[in-house]
Amino acid sequence: MERKKDLKHFRDLEVYQLAFKLAMNIFQITKNFPAEERYSLVDQIRRSSRSVCANLAEAWRKRKYVAVFKNKLTDSMQEASETQCWLEFSATCNYISKDQFVEYDGEYEKIILMLNSMEKYADKFCF
What we know:
Blueprint: H1 14-30, H2 38-61, H3 66-92, H4 98-120
Helix pairs in contact: 1-2, 1-4, 2-3, 3-4
């Protein structure tokens, strides 16, 4: 796990970098989704994948308050889980391959574990 003293910005967090990369990958793959999904599945999966990063950024700025920090991490985990759900819909509708689903779903599991670890050891991140 990363140590607080080595981190100066939320962008320095490995979990943020991974979540941002995945959100950008999702943005790219959803460009090829059918037009009828533009205002439902595409908007939802893009929003939830980006919200993982946004909530993590908010958590980082709330490190003065352990309870708020933990709450924003929980929000980030919830958005990651929601993204997994939308990825499953995408795979079931054959908008992404099963291999893409397995890869991205696994990466979101990794993100959730990392966020959970940050929550568990919040005192190492908070001041």
